[in-house]
């Protein structure tokens, strides 16, 4: 298999060893799956958890890829084994981060440490050892759009110049320091600048990924089932939880913010292209999203209600949504990105990548997974207090 695979320039792809930090998370689990099923590469999977990749690791020795994936349970905050693993690998991919908005304003120190301080040694070891790095940043580094500062009735708000987000041209616009929501975006921006500087001054080979709301199976957790009851995951899991419990979906500040959602499986194709085409990917920052899948959060809720009813066979909710203030939902210091449309010029030009899956289709496969995985457990959790 290894000799048959070629890169975008027709050159054979050599098997490589990848140190993947944060491999046990949502994106990491899909990337590990793809690398095991379709490539000859070896993964040194680093994380504090491995629940989401257990199906790739166990039973030990039973999969065709078993000798190509090793799990290393370690916390990169304080573990001297990290440098050795980076040295053993040809490429390091750093996914480790605190990346749920409910944490940014309530745990700003942990957020800044996780997204900046803890990533520093990874960058340093890659630079010092001449290793290539693919670092996961975020579309949140763009912050708010320029258009959001124009008067509400300004025709310029319709002009893409004022809202499309371009890696090499758009500014990064954050709220004031009291709006601690931006602690995450600001930490990610500074680590991007540091990586860029390592490339410019020391010749480090790097690519930076800015994901735009990647969603799909295994994203985050369902509160009270496979995560804390009081935990607040990202919107897909929040709305899935409401649907599973037959509760109205909560629209923060009326659900007026806009997002573009991309299917995780489409997005992983883009990451694989970066991994296997270093000459085209090195030195670039890549938006990875689906500009065709834009909705307001209210529209997302409405679509998820329809799709869930279809895949579960249950009737739609009588009271489908309820408005909630951001202060009540997230606490003091929350703020929001108004709109996120990725410009696709760079990823198209360098890697020829385009997303394929419509929002309806990706919600259908994701909510089928949510229903199959959680409906019974939620039913039992709801029934339990009554039984006691
Ligand atoms: N999912 C998205 O749409 C999205 C969007 C923008 C940016 N990102 C970025 O992509 C990356 C991965 O996101 P995800 O959605 O898979 O999140 P995730 O929370 O599912 O995965 C992150 C993983 O990193 C691990 N981790 C965190 N700190 C660690 C530490 N100190 N040591 C070892 N492991 C640690 C966690 O245990 C977790 O498994 C993050 O950097 C995130 O900021 C994701
Ligand atoms: O996924 C991304 O690209 C990035 O954006 C996310 O940020 P955000 O899109 O604001 O987070 P979500 O939790 O997915 O929320 C999306 C929108 O839904 C709203 N929301 C969320 C949950 C809910 O129950 N109801 C609700 O209306 C939020 O206020 C926000 O406007 C996270 O910061 C990161 O995972 C990531 O860096």
Concise structural overview:
With 388 residues, the chain is an alpha/beta fold. The protein has helices at 26-38, 54-57, 81-88, 101-104, 108-115, 120-128, 183-202, 235-244, 264-276, 278-281, 297-312, 326-330, 345-351, 359-387, and strands spanning 17-21, 42-47, 69-73, 91-94, 132-136, 164-165, 206-211, 214-215, 249-252, 258-260, 262-263, 284-288, 294-296, 321-324, 341-342. The chain has a single domain (97-381), classed as NAD(P)-binding Rossmann-like Domain (Rossmann fold, 3-Layer(aba) Sandwich), CATH 3.40.50.
CATH names the topology as: Rossmann fold
Bound ligands: nicotinamide-adenine-dinucleotide, uridine-5'-diphosphate-glucuronic acid
Overall mean pLDDT score?
97
Number of helical segments?
14
What topology, given as strand order, has the largest sheet? Answer: 3-2-1-4-5-7-12
Beta-strand residue fraction: 5-15%
- The CATH architecture designation is 3-Layer(aba) Sandwich
Indicate the percent of residues in helices. 25-40%
Major pleated sheet: 7 strands, parallel
Q: What is the CATH class designation?
A: Alpha Beta
Reading the helices and strands in chain order gives EHEHEHEHHHEEHEEHEEEHHEEHEHEHH
* The CATH superfamily title: NAD(P)-binding Rossmann-like Domain
Total count of domains:
1
Instruction: Count the E strands.
Output: 15
Radius of gyration: 21 Å
Distance between the termini: 57 Å
Question: Ranges with pLDDT <50 over ≥5 residues?
Answer: none
Question: How would you describe the shape?
Answer: globular
Summing up helix and strand content along with how strands pair, one would put the structural category as: alpha/beta
